[in-house]
Design a protein that fits this description.
Blueprint lengths: L1 E2 L2 E9 L4 H11 L14 E4 L6 E7 L2 E10 L3 H6 L7 E3 L6 E8 L8 E8 L5 E8 L11 E7 L2 E7 L6 H5 L2 E7 L2 E8 L3 H9 L1 E3 L3
Length: 210
């Protein structure tokens, strides 16, 4: 469970409590003061005083759920995802590209509720920018030439050129790959990547657990 920039280990100590419910109760209890949100209203929550023991304990009837920690979250994708309600996807295969930053945004324009942008770079000069948004990613690709339509997670994804004249993408790897998944738009924009590299990265995109 992530709360802010910290991660807790969640355990159901007693009773039949699912992981999702336990995380929801303890996440709300991590806000101050504990036990006053709608999710925790039926629960009695206490903040731990001993750093070697649990950090938060919530009880309801015979059920007990506890959060242990916290430890500072090291994954910037997780830290970004916890600030948004939309589903966030991150690549598990980056082919040597190193993450530079991840920037969640609550508003881009009046039609976009939430969005996120992440930048990657590689020593050979290749770059990757990932833009995600609900219902659309921020920015406008315009009307570039469509090179192919791939399938990503079962959804049609348009591969387009990002610069003119025609042929620029094939010379410099200036591509954009755009698809929609569960009400969100995901756009991968590249420089210096081959099509097969872009396809491998796109297919590795996986939901971030926050």
């Amino acid at each position: 469970m992530v709360a802010g920039t910290f991660t807790y280990t969640v355990r159901a100590e007693a009773g039949n409590v699912g992981c999702g419910l336990a995380c929801s109760v303890l996440r709300d209890a991590a806000e101050w003061p504990p036990g006053e949100s709608a999710a925790t209203a039926p629960w009695r929550c206490t903040v731990g005083q001993n750093p070697t023991s649990w950090a938060i304990s919530c009880t309801r009837g015979g059920a007990i759920v506890r959060a242990y920690g916290p430890v500072r979250e090291q994954n910037p994708w997780v830290t970004a995802a916890v600030r948004l309600t939309m589903r966030v996807l991150a690549p598990t295969s980056t082919l040597g590209l190193v993450l530079r930053d991840v920037r969640p945004r609550l508003h881009c324009d009046l039609t976009i509720k939430e969005s996120l942008t992440a930048d990657y770079a590689r020593a050979d000069g290749a770059t990757l920018t990932i833009a995600e948004g609900k219902p659309y990613a921020c920015g406008n690709l315009g009307n570039p030439p469509v090179l192919a339509v791939w399938r990503i997670h079962g959804h049609p994804a348009s591969l387009t050129e990002l610069c003119a004249p025609t042929g620029c993408a094939r010379l410099w790897g200036e591509y954009a790959l755009d698809w929609n998944e569960r009400g969100d738009e995901i756009v991968l924009m590249t420089h210096g990547l081959r099509q097969r590299e872009l396809l491998a990265i796109a297919r590795s995109m996986t939901g971030v657990r926050a």
